[in-house]
Amino acid sequence: MNWVGANLDLVVELTLTHARLSIVPILVGFVVAVPLGVFAWRFRWARGVTLTVVGLLYTIPSLALFVLLPPIIGISFLSELNVTIALSIYAVALMTRSATEALESVDPAVRGAANAMGYSGWGRFWAVDLPLAGPVLLAGLRVVSVSTVSLVTVGVLVGSRNLGYLFMNGLQRGIVAEIATGIVMTVLIAVAFDLLLALVGRLAMPWTQGAGGGRRSRRVARRIALTEGPT
Amino acid sequence: MIEFRGVGKRFADGTDAVIDFSLVMPSHRVTVLVGSSGSGKTTILRMINRMVDATVGTVEIDGEDVATLEPVQLRRRIGYVMQSGGLLPHRRVLDNITTVPRLNGMGRAEADERGLSLMDTVGLDRTLARRYPHQLSGGQQQRVGVARGLAVDPNILLMDEPFGAVDPIVRADLQAELLRLQRDIGKTVVFVTHDIDEAFLLGDQVVILSTGGVIAQQGTPAEILANPASDFVADFVGADRGRRALRVVEQDGRRVVVDGDGRAAGVLTDDPAAR
Asked: What is its main location (chain A) (predicted)?
């Protein structure tokens, strides 16, 4: 604990940077992946191609992506943008499949009922399909959030200053407390984000309270996430 | 009045769900389509609001061919009640009931007022208005479904096995409620069921369907019982056995009606006012 006391400023600074670096990819992942998911869900012919492409993106090792991206988009290897873009790609890759499955999870009987009442195409999408896909969407986003927070640490290899720095530095100098602090703070950020997302979900989808649907949708999203994953 | 003229439906996979179906469903009466699965009864119902489009023939509502009407607009003026209520799980009870009036552009305050009075009509406590469907019992959900079907005050109410998913006691309750309601509102109701008892209870006109939407017999329950058109119908309605084969026995000077199993069904009376 001596180490923590002596380096409190550094730990706080790295934690805040780490959180900031995680937020953008999570948001980008959601905003870009939902339309892609809708596209793959609405147009059968597009589904295979879209999901295969995002699936392949997700299998590219993160280090390789950090090295490949800069020359392609013309930025410095050490730019913070490099890490942000790479992690956004992973977030999109993970979230697109979740979004497609979320829309497919909507009960066909409810969809039929909406049609029978006189909802038309996009009207039904906004009023019925999208809200009912909400629980599975949220579950997917929570997986993306945890995955992004942990992937940010790899960014230290290309000069990003975040909690991953504590792993590297602690390892090189043999300070166990430093490594442990890095792990604990990373987990704390992940947990904080997860709780925040769960709270937003509760407020945005009050009908899921006590319906028993939440847990199942989380399982679905986790199953999707575990079938593949970058390192 | 709804009129089917030589209507057929062949699905994309080549199967014929309905072959050459013709029928008049009179206004302000309950027409029950009854048959087992594969009889095309739900397909026939769905052709009225164009959830399914006929491949041949015409379906007319008050002389207007539905094929010429815009499906979305058509559906918004026809009530539709389905099994398990078909409620939107993310909308509160009141919002479910007012869905179609709101789609038609009615203001929230007016729609809510109408929704609450419909809850009274179908026998739902107003305190349930803010609940979500999953917080209601099956019977209550079904009542919400009926209220929603009535929300735009449609001339036509389509009911697709609406009471199929509730237990027998609740079902009997809902059936009685529907009969009472229909006496007040007199809608043109088309009701689909596989339960012949339900058909005889609710139907002014009962249409018994065999495979492919072929009409085995149509008429009032009494007409069908008195004169089953075929062995198929006699077997389907069970006219010659069990609870329908009633006979009169004398007991202590009164005439008691007994069913095929020997169980007393009631007392024969000459007074037509006794009900």
From this structure: membrane
Question: Which residue do the tokens 């919400």 mark?
Answer: B144
> What ipTM is given for this predicted complex?
0.84
DSSP A129: I
Q: What's the confidence (pLDDT) of residue B263?
A: 84
Chain A nearest-CA distance from B33, in A, is 19
* pLDDT tens sequence across B64-78: 999 999 999 999 999
B202 by DSSP, 3-state: which? Answer: helix
The mean pLDDT value for A73-92 works out to: 90
Beta-bridged to residue B248, according to DSSP, are: B257
Q: Which amino acid is at B112?
A: D
CATH 3.40.50.10490: does it fit domain A2-227? no
**Contact flag B75-A116 (C-beta cutoff 8 Å):** yes
In angstroms, rounded to a whole number, what is the distance separating the alpha carbons of residues B189 and B81? 11
Please state the pTM of the whole predicted model. Answer: 0.83
Which helix (H) or strand (E) segment holds residue B192: the answer is strand B188-193
Q: Any CB–CB contact under 8 A between A1 and chain B?
A: no
CB of B105 less than 8 A from some CB of A: no
Q: How many alpha carbons fall within 13 Å on the CB side of residue B118?
A: 26
Per the DSSP assignment, residues forming a β-bridge with B188 are: B156
Say if B99 is an interface residue toward chain A (CB within 8 Å).
yes
Burial call A129-161: b when 16+ CB within 10 Å, e when fewer: bbbbbbbbbbbbbbbbbbbbbbbbbbbbebebe
User: Which tokens go with B161?
Assistant: 């096995």
Confidence of residue B275 (pLDDT cuts 50, 70, 90): low
Is A35 in CB contact (< 8 Å) with chain B? no
Report how far residue B257's alpha carbon sits from residue B263's, in angstroms, rounded to the nearest whole number: 9
